[in-house]
TrEMBL record:
It is found in: Secreted. Residues 1-23 form the signal peptide. InterPro entries: Chemerin. It comes from Merluccius polli. GO terms for molecular function: signaling receptor binding. This is Retinoic acid receptor responder protein 2. One of its GO terms (biological process) is regulation of lipid catabolic process.
Length: 165
């Protein structure tokens, strides 16, 4: 009897540890321009006093990048963060198992990057909300805001320069 119970408990523990490891692997596979956006979202999320748990990157839902020229890119990233069993500020955060009794955090971030560094102007747009509370209006507002950031860049181009002919 103990043998079966021990095997079941060992399998459950392995599955709990595999979750964060797999998520960490997905995070590491992201392009550097997307990782900096996930990092800024996690920093902001952890700075809120109401957030008690540590979160891990879970998966990308959608992403795009629009090259503006001269090494500048506009980034859009829609992803999920999943809460862990560890309190925020935990020093061993990478080994924290996921919680399946709390909702996933649905996040959208859009920003401009130059050489893998987020530009301060325009200010990066970050919107995260627990998945069950996300409304269609919120989705539309997020996408609209990011589209406006992408297409109103006013980036200079060499073709706009005219001189005497």
């Amino acid at each position: 009897m103990c043998t079966l119970l021990c095997v079941v408990l060992a399998a459950a523990a392995a599955a709990a540890l595999l979750g964060p490891a797999q998520a960490n692997q997905q995070y590491n596979q992201l392009d550097q321009n997307y990782r900096v956006g996930v990092d800024i979202v996690l920093q902001q999320l952890q700075s809120f006093p109401g957030v008690q748990l540590h979160f891990h990157f879970f998966r990308t839902i959608d992403k795009s990048d629009f090259e503006s020229g001269f090494g500048m890119s506009s980034i859009f990233h829609h992803f999920h963060l999943k809460p862990t069993r560890c309190a925020k500020g935990t020093s061993v955060a990478q080994s924290c198992p996921f919680r399946n009794d709390r909702p996933i955090m649905d996040c959208v971030v859009c920003y401009k990057v130059f050489q893998h560094v987020i530009e301060t102007a325009p200010k990066p747009y970050i919107h995260c909300i627990q998945r069950p509370k996300l409304t269609p209006e919120m989705r539309a507002t997020r996408l609209d805001h990011c589209r406006r950031m992408t297409y109103t860049s006013g980036a200079p181009t060499l073709l706009a320069v005219s001189g005497p002919t």
